[in-house]
Amino acid sequence: RQVNDEFHILANSWRYNQQFSSKLFFAFVDYDDSSDVFTMLDINSVPLIVHYPARGKPKKQDTFDLNKVAFSAEMMARWISERTDVAIRIFRPPSYS
C-alpha cells in the first residue's frame, strides 16, 4: 500500500508540475488486470519500479531498489532525476488525520 501511495504522489507531482512534458511518463500496472504485461516484460515479483529509457533496454541501475533505500516519493524523484535529468518537486496532499 505504501508503494502505491508514494508512487501516485510522485506521478501527480509530475503531472501538476510547471515543467510537465511528454518527456516522462508514469504507468501503474495491476497484475490481476494485465498479467500479459508482466509476462511480456518478464516481471516475476512486485512491487517493482523500473525506468525504461527512450532508447535501449533497461540496465540494472534502471530498477529502483525498494529494499536498499528508504522508500518515499522524494527518494523516487531523486532516482528519476539521476536517470533522466528531470527534476520533480514533490507535492504532498494535506493530511486530515
Characterization of the model:
The protein is mostly helical and 97 residues long. The protein has one domain (2-20, 30-84). The protein is built from 3 helices and 2 strands, in the order ααββα. The model has no long low-confidence stretch (mean pLDDT 86).
Strand coverage percent: under 5%
Rough outline: globular
Structural class: mainly alpha
Distance between the termini: 18 Å
What is the count of helical runs? 3
Helix content: 25-40%
Q: In what order do the strands lie side by side in the largest sheet?
A: 1-2
As a whole number of angstroms, the C-alpha radius of gyration is 14 Å
Strand elements, count: 2
Order of helices and strands: HHEEH
The total domain count is 1
Mean pLDDT equals 86
Give a quick account of the main beta sheet: strands, pairing sense, barrel closure: 2 strands, antiparallel
- Poorly predicted runs: none
Family: Belongs to the OST3/OST6 family.
GO cellular component, one term: endoplasmic reticulum membrane
Membrane topology: Multi-pass membrane protein
Keywords: Endoplasmic reticulum, Membrane, Signal, Transmembrane, Transmembrane helix
How does the SSE layout of this entry go?
Elements: H1 2-15, H2 35-40, E1 49-50, E2 63-64, H3 73-84
Antiparallel strand pairs: 1-2
Structural key phrases:
mainly alpha; two-stranded antiparallel ribbon; 2 strands; about 5% strand; signal; Thioredoxin-like_sf; transmembrane
Task: Summarize the model shown.
With 97 residues, the protein is mainly alpha-helical.
